[in-house]
Design goal:
With 238 residues, the protein is of the alpha+beta class. 18% of the residues lie in helices and 39% in strands. The mean pLDDT is 95.
Length: 238
C-alpha cells in the first residue's frame, strides 16, 4: 500500500519516496505519495520526480490494485528502478486550485440543498449536477450566499466515523450515484465550520483548504439541463 501523505497534509508540495513497483502500463508505484490519485471527480495531481541522475515529468496519478498509487509519466523516458529513492514535486498551483475548488463545491451543495448526481473539479472551473427539476430562480442570491460563506473564513475540518455510524446517518451522504469508499472500516468526513457555525459535513476523500477564506471569490456560471430532473451548475474561481 501507498502511504497517503496528501491526506495527512494537503499542503505538502515535495517529499521523498521509494519506488516499489512499475505497472504494466508504465506507471511508477511509490511507497508514500503527495500526488492525489484520480477519484471522486478530482483529477490526479501532476508535477515531476527527481532522483540521482534523472528527472521524470508526471502527468497524473491513479490508484492501483492493493491500495497503491501509481504516478503516470508525461513523457517516454527512462524511469527510476524499483528500490530507487526519488523526490516528488507537485505542480502546486494546480493542486491548490483543485483544493480551493473542491471546498467551494462543498459550499455550493449547501446553497443548493438538493441531492448531487455528479461532479467534476478543475483548476479553473468545477461543476455539480443536481437532482433539480427547474433551474434556480435567483442566481445572484446564490452567488451572494456563496461568497459570504467564503468571506466568513470558516475552518475546514477532518474527522472519521465507522461504516456502521455512516449507515446510521444516511443524511451525511449527498451524492446519489457515488457512494463513499468502503472496506477500510472507517469513513473520512469533511466539515465546514465548527459548532453553531457548522455549515456542512459529508464524506470526502479529496484535498481541501484549511479555511474557506482561502478559496477567494467564486461565481456560478452556466446552468445546463442534463435530463428531466438533472441540472448541471458550473462554478468558476475568480
Amino acid at each position: 500500500m501507498t502511504d497517503l501523505l496528501f491526506r495527512d497534509d494537503p499542503y505538502l508540495a515535495s517529499a521523498d519516496a521509494t519506488v516499489i513497483a512499475h505497472t504494466p502500463e508504465g506507471g511508477l508505484v511509490i511507497d508514500r505519495s503527495i500526488f492525489y490519485a484520480t477519484a471522486g471527480g478530482q483529477p490526479g495531481d501532476s508535477g515531476f520526480v527527481t532522483w540521482d541522475g534523472g528527472r521524470l515529468s508526471i502527468a497524473t496519478a491513479v490508484k492501483v490494485e492493493g491500495g497503491g498509487i501509481a504516478l503516470v509519466p508525461g513523457e517516454a523516458v527512462a524511469m527510476p528502478a524499483v528500490g530507487a529513492s526519488v523526490v516528488q514535486h507537485l505542480d502546486w498551483d494546480r493542486r491548490h486550485r483543485h483544493m480551493r475548488m473542491h471546498t467551494a463545491l462543498h459550499l455550493l451543495s449547501v446553497v443548493i440543498p438538493l441531492p448531487v448526481t455528479g461532479g467534476q473539479i478543475g483548476a479553473e472551473r468545477g461543476r455539480l449536477d443536481f437532482d433539480m427539476a427547474e433551474p434556480p430562480s435567483d442566481v445572484d442570491a446564490l452567488n451572494t450566499a456563496l461568497n459570504r460563506m467564503i468571506e466568513a473564513d470558516l475552518e475546514v475540518t477532518e474527522s472519521w466515523i465507522t461504516e456502521d455510524e455512516l449507515d446510521a446517518n444516511p443524511g451525511l451522504v449527498k451524492t446519489l450515484t457515488v457512494a463513499p469508499p468502503r472496506g477500510q472500516g472507517r469513513i473520512r468526513l469533511i466539515g465546514i465550520g465548527i459548532g453553531a457555525r457548522r455549515l456542512d459535513l459529508q464524506p470526502c476523500g479529496g484535498t481541501h483548504v484549511l479555511r474557506t477564506g482561502e478559496i477567494g471569490r467564486v461565481e456560478i456560471g452556466r446552468i445546463e439541463k442534463k435530463g428531466r430532473q438533472n441540472r448541471r451548475v458550473s462554478l468558476h474561481l475568480l
